[in-house]
Amino acid sequence: MTALDLSSASSGARDRIWHPWSPIQQAQRLTLTSSRGCYVRDDDGRSYLDLRAGTLNATVGYSHPAVVEAIRDQASRLMTWDLAEVSTPPARELADRIAGLLPEPLEYTLFCNSGSEATEAALKIARMWHRIHGRPGRTVVMSFADGYHGATTAAIAATAAPFRRDGAGPLPAGYAHLATPRCPSCASGEEHDGCMVPGAAEWEAQILAAGPETIAAVLVEPVLSVGGVIVPPPGELASLRTLCDRHGILLIADEVATGFGRTGRMFGFEHDLGPAGMAPDIITTAKGLTGGYAPLAAVTVRTDIYADFACDPLLGGLRHGHTTGGHATACAAALAVLDIVEHDKLVPAAASRGTQLLEALAPLKQRPSVRDVRGLGLLIGVEMASMELAAGVAQAVQEKGVLIRAFGPVLTVAPPLIISEQEAEDGARTLAHAIRALPSGEGR
Ligand code: PMP
């Protein structure tokens, strides 16, 4: 193994931050110094339209004066967090607000700091809840094979293979995967006679193979984000709900990437479960909860699940928490963000701007370098023929003043929900231009 040679960089020019997702691209990394609306600015004074904001789920855009003021006001008024013996007005109000946005059975919220922590808490809750009900054998968690649920050890065990980093193991036992609801031949760009998206029949076979009596929960993203913007066809999530009910399994919706408007509904599960009058049993949220302004995550559970823990004498509650989870300042930021999302009608805005972007980008499917263009609301994926092509296009648009993130071969177009019609048009034009400029043989 050759160690990375750092001797050539002068000590002042060294970036001493360990960036574990891409340690060797330091030369290309921008240093951002300010932000406003849908734009960020680097230390050379260059401004960029930020279409990667979905990574933070930065719904209301950057440096929104009302959110900045709410943070300032709360930090100067009361600096504390939410632990067993104390609570604060913003944390209590936020828990009420979240309950008000969700269907009735989802009522009680546990706060933490990151999406990964929310995953960990949700999985603990699911397993312990079965135990409370005398089913200690139900410990397995099933998740989509291409899902992403975080970077902590339990979360990676539930996450897609490329993120599992087996060298960091042993990973905990008790995880199994469900086929991702996408067509294998569409995904590989092959010709086919019809889509072959896995659904209820395949999932039930996988549940039966794993042994339903061993399964605690199914954990899924309503729209897969990091795994490549995969939108399950209508009805798929509802059929998963039915399967969970049939086999006594809890359904956990990971709304870390999709929650609070990103897909054109307040929550991603609403596209499918809502109209059928169904809901998940537990939902996890983070990122969009504060629009990216502060670290905060939430696990919201059915009333009866909370009640079972609250009165369980043996376990004495969940015994779980994080020092800064539910920090008053983060909760104040979240309340300000939710006010803006509702007042400025950003959820329907995400739906219409998303349609505009999808229509503008759809013709790129004709290009040999592009496998697919898909998405829901302002979570859009342009799947290129290779990772290298995606990375090249991301670099090319950056030079033209637009930031887009590539997850593997998929360019993820996910701007703040406040993006204007003109900004969306400009962003789509720059991306289309960069793709059309690829040499004609690319991707064949
Ligand atoms: N779940 C989903 C769907 C995510 O997109 C992410 C983050 N990309 C996480 C969980 C983990 O969140 P965090 O990075 O805050 O730990």
Description of the molecule:
This is Aspartate aminotransferase family protein. The protein has 444 residues and is α/β, with parallel strands linked by helices. The chain has two domains: 32-60 and 345-436, Aspartate Aminotransferase, domain 1; 66-343, Aspartate Aminotransferase, domain 2 (3-Layer(aba) Sandwich), CATH 3.40.640.10. Helix 1 runs antiparallel to helix 9 (328-343) and helix 2 (89-101) packs parallel to helix 9 (328-343). It contains twelve helices and 15 strands. Helices cover 33% and strands 16% of the residues. It has a seven-stranded mixed sheet with strand order 4-10-9-8-7-5-6, sandwiched between helices. Strands 1-2-3-13 form a four-stranded mixed sheet. Strands 11-12-15-14 form a four-stranded antiparallel sheet, with helices on one face. The chain is globular. Residues 114-116, 119, 148-151, 221, 225-226, 254, 256-257, 286 line the site of 4'-deoxy-4'-aminopyridoxal-5'-phosphate.
Query: In terms of per-residue confidence, which ranges show pLDDT below 50 for 5 or more consecutive residues?
Result: none
Number of helices in the DSSP assignment? 12
* Gap between N and C termini: 35 Å
Can you identify the CATH class of the largest domain?
Alpha Beta
Order of helices and strands: EEEHHEHEHEHHEHEEEHHHEEHEEEH
- CATH architecture level-2 label of the largest domain: 3-Layer(aba) Sandwich
Which distinct ligands sit in these coordinates? 4'-deoxy-4'-aminopyridoxal-5'-phosphate
Shape: globular
Please outline the major beta sheet: 7 strands, mixed
- Let me know the CATH homologous superfamily of the largest domain: Type I PLP-dependent aspartate aminotransferase-like (Major domain)
Average predicted local confidence, pLDDT:
91
Structural class: alpha/beta
The CATH topology of the largest domain: Aspartate Aminotransferase, domain 2
Strand order of the largest sheet: 4-10-9-8-7-5-6
The rounded Rg comes to 22 Å
In total, how many beta strands?
Answer: 15
GO molecular function: transaminase activity
Protein name: Aspartate aminotransferase family protein
Pfam families: Aminotran_3
Family: Belongs to the class-III pyridoxal-phosphate-dependent aminotransferase family.
